[in-house]
């Protein structure tokens, strides 16, 4: 599998919520995965997106919670969905890869229980 399976990591997005993750506490595997995929030669990284079998969305749920959780009239859940929806919008408009499978071959890493929230009418994760 290491010789054949390839992942493309999107380069869109800015720190701290994208391309970064925690590395020092219970959720640190999220940050470690982002670091391993983006910081050096990984046997799984595709050289270009056309050879990828899967596409990594380098969003950090932990960093989103750190920077988006503030008392407000709307729930935190709605702000988190907007962050993901905005990122997917950028990716799907810039690259053809999301659109060819409706995101079925895309993934992100999360060590949290934020599983299964919806993006529009489609379910993310």
From TrEMBL:
It holds the Pfam family Exostosin_GT47. Keywords: Glycosyltransferase, Golgi apparatus, Signal-anchor, Transferase, Transmembrane. It is found in: Golgi apparatus membrane. GO terms for cellular component: Golgi membrane. Its main location: Golgi. InterPro entries: Exostosin, Exostosin_GT47. It is a single-pass type II membrane protein. GO terms for molecular function: glycosyltransferase activity. Residues 3-118 form the Exostosin GT47 domain. Belongs to the glycosyltransferase 47 family. This is Exostosin-like. It comes from Trema orientale (Charcoal tree).
